[in-house]
Write a structure and sequence with these properties.
Layout lengths: L5 E4 L15 H14 L3 E5 L5 H13 L6 E7 L11 H8 L4 E7 L2 H6 L5 H17 L3 E7 L1 H7 L1 H13 L4 E6 L6 H15 L3 E5 L6 H10 L4 E4 L13 H12 L6 H4 L2 H12 L16 E2 L2 H9 L17 E2 L7 H10 L9 H15 L8 H12 L8 E13 L2 E12 L2 E9 L2 H13 L9 E10 L10 E9 L2 E9 L2 H16 L21
Parallel strand pairs: 1-2, 1-8, 2-3, 3-4, 4-5, 5-6, 6-7, 7-8, 9-10
Antiparallel strand pairs: 11-12, 12-13, 14-15, 15-16
Helix pairs in contact: 1-2, 1-12, 5-7, 6-7, 8-9, 13-14, 14-15, 15-16, 16-18, 17-18
The chain binds acetyl coenzyme *A and pyruvic acid.
Protein name: Citramalate synthase
Keywords: Acyltransferase, Amino-acid biosynthesis, Branched-chain amino acid biosynthesis, Isoleucine biosynthesis, Transferase
Family: Belongs to the alpha-IPM synthase/homocitrate synthase family.
């Protein structure tokens, strides 16, 4: 049973204040559904009356958003100075959003009251009380975001406390202390929250920005000090350096503080929710994001891998499956036999770090990386290398390459690229030509034309990304170019690598690895049901 803690998401309001984040109403509705599924208690949808798209969001939400867990909140400011709340069009727009909750931003810093609002301290308190009362009278639950609270508290503690008291006395359910400029540190936040709670007894929340890199730490400090509401955003999206990453806050509260703010089975949806949100926002989360980032449980160093073989807890602070993530191993020149064993097991091969095959594969990886190869994101090329070692040498190939050529011809404005491949397939000589918008595209087309009729599995192979890096002077042998190609093959995604003094030849290598990888089947030593490493994870 989830505890009565207020998890408040502001992705659709403060999150959209991030540079580069532009969401349609459709996107906002879809993000709200994902966050509701995860189990957050409150979803702040935007500022109706100020942002036309947000007004439209709340209008459509009434019929199109069937929330199972969350309550929708409309965000807006207190009434303008000198205007009764009942006559302020912005306040009216908040009521017209018809949400159960309204969250009001209120000034709590005397400098802001005087210089930004250009009103008196007394009028600001009246604006807060009057607006809260008006909304509560109209049947709304009201939260008050006390803007610049931590800076305001340092400047004029009595006034900041007066804002908290005025909001609560007028009927605000929770007063959210905002580190609006994001410059506070955890010890300061803990002290101010503790003192405010002691001096007012008002239920408090925390809204922390990340300008000092402490948004999550500040949120945790505030909750430890007694805050009952944590605000944050998916992936920490938000104005400037962003907000507290609500996904990290949730995982910390559940796994580190034992507070079941969402049910454990929902926590296992955390990584999936993160991916779904980035697909909608088109703003990627960081690979290094705690808990749910692609690298959060990914291990590169050989010594780490060697300890992880014995016990995953030795280099992981928690169990990745708790948050729907998985442990991965990277193969590189920084690894040794243990990294090879772990990666091989990830790929389904039951091998031991102490075996000769694994030792040979580890040596080859180090040598090839010194020549410019990189296997980190070329898992298919690594698997081909591993298979060669496990099989005791190159396997019989399903086809042989007799020759290949690529030509680029320019006539006027037109550039034409043509590739020809000559292969021996099942004893027959096959020649095919492909055209494309460049050499890689043309070679890929020619290979498909030659091979797909004999090997239908290849028709599912789709090239999704191509990266080339010039390596001059960087490698032992002075190799010139490294090409990394990413593919999708039905549900799977994987990559290959090629290195050569000639970029087109490096691309050809990577393309051929892809074809051989798809045709790799029925291998001896591959155990389809080898116990995944995750099975060894306790808990
Ligand atoms: C800390 C936060 O992130 S709070 C959320 C911030 N979000 C946004 O600002 C996004 C939505 N904002 C908007 O659409 C516009 O800024 C509006 C509609 C709110 C205001 O637009 P405009 O009236 O054109 O004014 P402008 O954007 O220049 O803002 C200045 C006005 O806001 C007032 N203002 C500034 N801060 C606040 C506040 N916290 N509460 C109420 N009014 C405020 C100023 O006093 C000034 O009013 P005045 O013109 O009567 O002197
Ligand atoms: C309310 C808000 O977004 C802030 O003070 O940062």
């Amino acid at each position: 049973m989830a505890e009565q803690f207020q998890l408040y998401d502001t992705t659709l309001r403060d999150g959209t204040q991030q540079e580069g984040m532009v969401l349609t109403v459709e996107d906002k509705l879809a993000v709200a559904r994902r966050l509701d599924d995860l189990g957050v208690g409150f979803i702040e949808g935007g500022w109706p009356g100020a942002v036309p798209k947000d007004t439209e969001f709340f209008r459509r939400a009434r019929t199109e958003l069937d929330l199972g867990n969350a309550v929708l909140a409309a965000f807006g400011a207190t009434r303008r100075p000198g205007v009764p709340a009942s006559l302020d069009p912005q306040v009216r727009a908040l009521l017209e959003a018809e949400t159960p909750v309204v969250t009001l931003v209120a000034k709590s810093h005397t400098g802001h009251v005087r210089n930004a609002l250009r009103t008196t301290l007394a009028e600001n308190l009246a604006m807060i009380s009057g607006t809260v009362r008006h909304l509560v009278h109209a049947g709304r639950r009201v939260f008050v975001d006390a803007e610049h609270y931590f800076d305001g508290y340092q400047l004029n503690r009595e006034y900041a406390l007066a804002v908290v008291r005025a909001a609560a006395e007028a009927g605000a359910e929770t007063v959210v202390l905002c580190d609006t400029n994001g410059g506070s540190l955890p010890d300061e936040v803990r002290t101010v929250v503790t003192e405010t709670l002691d001096l007012t007894g008002v239920p408090l929340g925390i809204h922390a920005h990340n300008d000092s890199g402490c948004a999550v730490a500040n949120t945790m400090a505030a909750v430890d000090a007694g805050a009952v509401q944590a605000q944050g955003t998916a992936h920490g999206y938000g104005e400037r350096c962003g907000n507290a990453d609500l996904f990290t806050v949730i995982a910390n509260l559940v796994l580190k503080r034992g507070r079941e703010v969402i049910p454990l089975e929902k926590l296992r949806e955390l990584a999936r929710t993160g991916r779904a949100v980035t697909e909608l926002t088109q703003v990627p989360g960081s690979a290094a994001a705690p808990y749910i980032g692609g690298s959060a449980f990914t291990h590169k160093a050989g010594l780490h891998a060697s300890a992880l073989r014995v016990d995953p807890d030795l280099y992981q602070h928690t169990t990745p499956e708790f948050v729907g993530n998985t442990m991965r191993t990277l193969v590189s020149d920084m690894g040794g036999r243990s990294s090879i064993e772990l990666k091989a097991r990830e790929l389904g091969y039951a091998v031991e770090a102490g075996s000769d095959e694994v030792a040979r594969a580890a040596t080859r990886v180090k040598e090839m990386e010194s020549d410019g190869y990189s296997f980190e994101s070329a898992d298919a090329s690594f698997e081909l290398l591993l298979r060669e070692e496990l099989d005791g040498g190159p396997r019989p190939r399903p086809f042989d390459v007799e020759s290949w050529s690529v030509g680029v011809t320019g006539t006027g404005d037109e550039v034409r690229t043509e590739a020809t491949v000559r292969l021996t397939v099942q004893g027959r000589s096959v020649t095919a030509t492909g055209h494309g918008n460049g050499p890689v595209n043309a070679m890929d087309t020619a290979l498909h034309t030659a091979l797909d009729p004999c090997f239908p599995a290849l028709s599912r192979l789709e090239l999704t990304d191509y990266r080339v890096r010039v390596l001059s002077g960087e490698t032992g042998s002075g190799a010139a170019a490294r090409v990394l190609i990413s593919y999708r093959d039905g549900e799977r995604s994987w990559g290959t690598v090629g290195v050569d003094g000639n970029t087109t030849a490096a691309s050809w290598q990577a393309l051929l690895d892809a074809v051989h990888y798809v045709l790799l089947d029925g291998p001896p030593g591959r155990v389809e049901d080898a116990p995944p490493l995750a099975a060894a994870v306790p808990g």
